[in-house]
Amino acid sequence: MSRVAVLEGGRSLERQVSLRSGARVQDALERLGHDVTAIDVGADLVARLREVAPDVAFVALHGRDGEDGTVQELLELLGIPYTASGVSACIRCMDKVLAKHLMRDAGIPTPDFYSFNETAFKELGAAGALPEMEERLEFPIVVKPAGQGSALGVKFARTPADVPAALVAAFSYDRKVLLERHVAGRDLAVSIVDLEEGPTALPVVEAVPREEDFYDFEARYEIGRTDFVCPADLPADVAAEAQRLALDVYRLFGCFGFARVDLMRDAASGELTVLEANAIPGLTETSLLPQAADAQGLAFDAFVARVLDLALARAGAAA
Ligand SMILES: Nc1ncnc2c1ncn2[C@@H]1O[C@H](COP(=O)(O)OP(=O)(O)O)[C@@H](O)[C@H]1O
Ligand SMILES: [Mg+2]
Q1: Phi-psi region of 263 (alpha: psi -120 to 50; beta: other; left: phi over 0)
Q2: What is each CA distance from 319 to 94, 105, 312, 316, in whole angstroms?
Q3: Could you report the per-residue pLDDT of 298-318, keeping only the tens digit for each?
Q4: Phi, psi of 160 (to 5 degrees)
Q5: Which of the residues in the chain have pLDDT under 70?
């Protein structure tokens, strides 16, 4: 039995999802017989951690602070073992621009893109280069903030006239944005869990929007507007290739414990490309990783137990 602090909530835009992930993790940890304290992450985080003095922290945070390495850095400083990826892997996952450069350099297919920060537009006249970007990426184009999740700020630009508003929306979430080639095709996700035999790709999940021609990515995340199919209805070799790519990304970014990689499959060419990796994907009842684990026969409690064991083993190895 360990004293476990479940870190949840926080100030990120994904606070509500995190509270649900955290509650589910708490229940599992209690069933496993641990002494569990939930900490809603805020200004008193360090004080609370000193007070609770946990043997290990289960990080059930999503988005800014919790998934970008900030909380992990504090846990390192305080010498508290914690679940999932370390600081540098979190940074690589959270910054989509960095992630895409790393993938491109490593030969992992990712949709073409250009990225700019706000100062490029404000101080360097980057708007004047939009026609070149648009010509190279071809319409439609997807515009998104470098660091966000749950499709927040992800916009679809059908024509040049749509680009300025899409940029404004993306810049409202982050000082850095990317313009990415749109992939017309299927939306896939592969979760990875580090099992006894090493990092293992779970069955592919497909997100199927209920409405045709559905380009409001944010709305897709609302419950009931998207169906999730697991295992996705794919030829065996395509599923295996998606799993192989996801494992490559997991290793490239140096993830630990578990993660989820989002991909697209081009309807016309069949090509698979990687959009991004999530260092702490959702762990709610309806989240993709738990669904995929279920399809693999890995119960949620067993998943939580494994992730906790790994966190303690990593700390032991470092000591
Ligand atoms: N280049 C793209 N082509 C087609 N659809 C995209 C593209 N980029 C994002 N999307 C859609 O938006 C969703 C969210 O984008 P993603 O890059 O995974 O960011 P996040 O999940 O962090 O918000 C994807 O799952 C997909 O449905
Ligand atoms: Mg995603």
Answers
A1: beta
A2: 28, 34, 11, 5
A3: 999 999 999 999 999 998 877
A4: -55, -30
A5: 212-215, 217-224, 319
Burial label for 109, CB within 10 Å (0-12, 13-18, 19+), is middle
Among 8, 10, 12, 14, which one carries the catalytic annotation? 14
Q: Which helix (H) or strand (E) holds 287?
A: none
Q: Is 260 a catalytic residue?
A: yes
- Token pair of 24, please? 């589910």
pLDDT of residue 223: 62
Q: In what order do the strands lie in the sheet with 56-59?
A: 35-40, 3-8, 56-59
Q: Provide the β-strand partners of residue 142.
A: 156, 180
Q: What stretches of the chain adopt beta strand conformation (E)?
A: 3-8, 35-40, 56-59, 113-117, 141-145, 155-157, 176-181, 185-195, 198-201, 205-209, 226-229, 258-266, 272-278
Ligand closest to Cα of 266 equals 1
Report residues whose beta carbon is within 6 angstroms of any ligand 1 atom: 111, 142, 144, 148-151, 154, 180-183, 187, 217, 262, 264, 275-276
Q: What is the pLDDT of residue 280?
A: 97
Lookup: tokens for 212: 């045709």
The CA distance from 237 to 222, in Å, is 31
Q: Terminus-to-terminus CA distance in the chain, angstroms?
A: 20
